[in-house]
Amino acid sequence: MKIVHITYSATGGAGIAAYRLHKSLINNEIKSSFISINLTTDFSGQQIEDPFLKYKKPSIVNRLFNKLKRVLLLTKKQRVVRSFTKIKPQLNFEIVSLPFSNYKLHKHPLVKEADIINLHWVSGIIDYPTFFKKCKKPIVWTLHDMNPIQGLFHYKNDKVENFNISNKLDLELEKIKKEAIKNIEKGVIVTPSKWLFNEVVTSIFFKNFKFKQIANSIPHHIFKPQNKNIFRKKYQLPIDKFVLLFATDSLNNKRKGLDILIESLKYLEDLPIVIVSVGKGKLELKTTLKSINVGSITTEVQMAEMYALSDVFVLPSREDNLPNVMLESFSCGKPVVGFNVGGISEHIHNFETGIIAEHINAKSLAKALRKYYNSKEKFNEVKIRNYFLKKFNESLQAEKYIKLYKSL
């Protein structure tokens, strides 16, 4: 049995989760390959150069022919792209994408060789109309956000905020996606969280699909409890302070809620807090509390050190599925404070694995952080670690996926 995983990038939350699954399958003696724009591995587990995904400049004749077609007769794809280009400057969003791509992945050698196609975050790499029409192999689609069940946007809040401007285009894109997905003869949707599972089941996109909930996994041999003081000394942090850790790809990502965390700190200035942030951008506090930003982290080992030196991980996302950072924190035995959104609230159990803030605002977050500070002795690193091992270990995830693949 050969599985090929397809995701746009091997980096970012979705790409990392997809690659971890790929590696876990290999460790369980399943032949697995991986395709993305920045990393491709074959069925022997070797990283390879992938000329299939290299940009090929069209010839002068093809460029002239394409230009003539655009002048004389616009295709549906060209009309949609033109509509999107027109409204894009008016939109406010984290990320948007169209269901089109110049890559014809149904022709990729690894796709042709595979028995099962496991899609992940596929915007920009999968061309919905051609791929789902041409590829007749069973498809497992692991969802990492809501884009496959929406039109333009990847997150519900963005769709709501831009409704008046984008609704017409959204409806057209939804129709294109639904028509393309109808071509899938045998498919299963996998969601990491119950929240996303419920969103997908009640949507109108995957009526002929089966649905499974399988959580992501984290390499627990890397993300593990370690001596806090060793890494506080390494990063020149005071041993006796209360360290809050916040991590995201970009500190400017509104959905991740750094602005809420910053605002909440003014209610916590009486506590001996130091804020450590991970991610691109600047951390500008409106408080006298001390902070450091370590910038982007590219290795799992260094990220594990960040959890080790912290007292608590703060996850103030306004909207999220099942963030890797939450699972990594649990794997390191560290509690999480966050909001009652998405898959976050499914695993933050008050006074066991963390604290849930009652409302999505700064005062409520500050209240939850203070509640944790005043009761931190109640939290047990071993119990949090054991909760992780019971729910999110690699063997369990691989076992569930292998069973699913075999059923197809």
Automatic annotation (TrEMBL):
Its EC number is 2.4.-.-. This is Glycosyltransferase. SUPFAM superfamilies: UDP-Glycosyltransferase/glycogen phosphorylase. The keyword Transferase applies. Coiled coil: none annotated. It comes from the Bacteria. Keywords: Glycosyltransferase, Transferase. The keyword tRNA processing does not apply. It is an enzyme of class 2 (transferase). The lineage of its organism: Bacteria, Pseudomonadati, Bacteroidota, Flavobacteriia, Flavobacteriales. One of its GO terms (molecular function) is glycosyltransferase activity. It holds the Pfam family Glyco_trans_1_4.
